[in-house]
Amino acid sequence: HLAQQEWGPGQKKFERILQNSSTSNDAYSLIALGNVWLQTLHQPCREKDREKRHQERALTMYKQVLKSDPKNIWAANGIGCVLAHKGCINEARDIFAQVREATADFPDVWMNIAHIYVEQKQYINAIQMYENCVRKFRMHHDVEWLTWVARAQTLAEPSADFPDVWMNIAHIYVEQKQ
């Protein structure tokens, strides 16, 4: 369900798994459920109380994993994401840096560090981080990643025009849809 962005049915399945006493601390299910709550933070929401509740639910899931497995990089990365959503940019950056120190083979944390650089208006650092990740993880045809690079470039040089970059992204997108 989660692969198809069907958050409600996915949430129910993982909640059912966690209700079973033998799987109540299943790290995969807890992280997946935390990710469902985290995903809701990407949706436009005018209700601040609801947004805060979802942040806390996601944090609770990730923290529960870290209690039993303090080195779980996915749970730590999730906590960093929630902190970033809360506006705790420096704290999120510190967590992402620790995760990246633990393993350099986790593209999500590279992306999150680059996003933090964008939030801090450190566009050149963001561009370098995105581009390094695109190279390292061979994401030359990933439209989402290439769009982040292009966005950071546009923010770094608002008066510049990057038609080649945007045309390349459009070309890749069309190819993937065929």
From TrEMBL:
<dbReference type="InterPro" id="IPR011990">
    <property type="entry name" value="TPR-like_helical_dom_sf"/>
</dbReference>
<dbReference type="Pfam" id="PF14559">
    <property type="entry name" value="TPR_19"/>
</dbReference>
<keyword id="KW-0677">Repeat</keyword>
<dbReference type="GO" id="GO:0006355">
    <property type="term" value="P:regulation of DNA-templated transcription"/>
</dbReference>
<dbReference type="InterPro" id="IPR031101">
    <property type="entry name" value="Ctr9"/>
</dbReference>
<dbReference type="GO" id="GO:0000993">
    <property type="term" value="F:RNA polymerase II complex binding"/>
</dbReference>
<keyword id="KW-0802">TPR repeat</keyword>
<dbReference type="InterPro" id="IPR019734">
    <property type="entry name" value="TPR_rpt"/>
</dbReference>
<dbReference type="GO" id="GO:0016593">
    <property type="term" value="C:Cdc73/Paf1 complex"/>
</dbReference>
<protein>
    <submittedName>
        <fullName>RNA polymerase-associated protein</fullName>
    </submittedName>
</protein>
<dbReference type="GO" id="GO:0006368">
    <property type="term" value="P:transcription elongation by RNA polymerase II"/>
</dbReference>
